[in-house]
């Protein structure tokens, strides 16, 4: 494991310089990229064992890099770095293919421990999870929804909502719970926001949006995804 190849991707040169020296001193083969495009080119040329990837970068951000990297090199591990510590960012990063997440600022000892833990898992990551119901297919790693084989155009929040609902199949979820889990505490939506997005999901994914089969209203509570 000490000879593992690591690609550091960050637009902050001081972060890269510090990590190159530290991880290099621990026996790792370290390469760097200062943009998403450079990172993908590096992966095409020589796939690393692990990518340490900053989420917030100008141009192509870390989330998009992760999506593309997973197609180029499915077995490469990914640790996200971010100065934003909201749980929703962490969940989003891991959902589309990240293996771990560490918030800035971090100690080098903590990062080293995370690196070793991720590399110890070895092998290829588990196959991407896919949800299917009726003629609908949801592929989270690509943030893609199809109906009868055709792409369904969805906003980011519509996808986040449908993905959360199918993950909690059969559970009665309150509007407040959906607001907190999908929109996050840094947003300012209302319960009517949830109702509107459910209405949109039904129009796009239900055979009959007036009498929904999958996205059902639980009177006095909220909503529930059912796949019978």
Notes on the protein architecture:
The chain is an alpha/beta fold and 228 residues long. The chain folds into two domains: 5-121, Rossmann fold, CATH 3.40.50; 131-225, Winged helix-like DNA-binding domain superfamily/Winged helix DNA-binding domain (Arc Repressor Mutant, subunit A). The protein has eight helices and twelve strands. The chain has a five-stranded parallel sheet with strand order 2-1-3-4-5, with helices on both faces. β11 (215-218) and β12 (222-225) form a beta hairpin. It is elongated and about 60 Å long. The model has no long low-confidence stretch (mean pLDDT 85).
Query: How much is the radius of gyration in Å?
Result: 20 Å
Could you tell me how far the N terminus lies from the C terminus, measured between alpha carbons in angstroms? 46 Å
Q: What name does the CATH topology of the largest domain carry? A: Rossmann fold
Query: Helix count?
Result: 8
List keywords for this structure.
single chain, 228 residues, alpha/beta, Rossmann fold, Arc Repressor Mutant, subunit A, five-stranded parallel beta sheet, four-stranded antiparallel beta sheet, 8 helices, 12 strands, 21% strand
């Amino acid at each position: 494991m000490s000879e593992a190849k690591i690609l550091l991707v960050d637009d902050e040169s001081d972060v890269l310089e510090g990590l190159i020296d530290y991880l290099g001193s621990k026996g790792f083969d370290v390469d760097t990229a200062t943009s998403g495009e450079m990172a993908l080119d590096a992966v095409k040329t020589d796939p690393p064992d692990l990518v340490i990837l900053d989420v917030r970068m100008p141009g192509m951000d870390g989330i998009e890099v992760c999506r593309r990297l997973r197609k180029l090199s499915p077995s490469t591990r990914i640790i996200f770095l971010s100065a934003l510590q909201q749980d929703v960012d962490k969940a989003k990063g891991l959902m589309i293919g990240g293996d771990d997440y560490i918030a800035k600022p971090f100690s080098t000892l903590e990062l080293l421990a995370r690196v070793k833990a991720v590399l110890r898992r070895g092998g290829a990551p588990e196959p991407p999870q896919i949800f299917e119901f009726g003629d609908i297919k949801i592929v989270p790693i690509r943030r893609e929804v199809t109906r009868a084989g055709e792409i369904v155009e969805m906003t980011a929040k519509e996808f986040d909502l449908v993905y959360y609902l199918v993950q909690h199949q059969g559970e009665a979820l309150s509007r407040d719970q959906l607001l907190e889990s999908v929109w996050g505490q840094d947003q300012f939506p209302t319960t009517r926001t949830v109702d509107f997005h459910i209405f949109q999901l039904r129009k796009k994914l239900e055979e009959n949006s007036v009498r929904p089969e999958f996205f059902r209203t639980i009177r006095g509570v909220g909503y529930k995804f059912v796949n019978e």
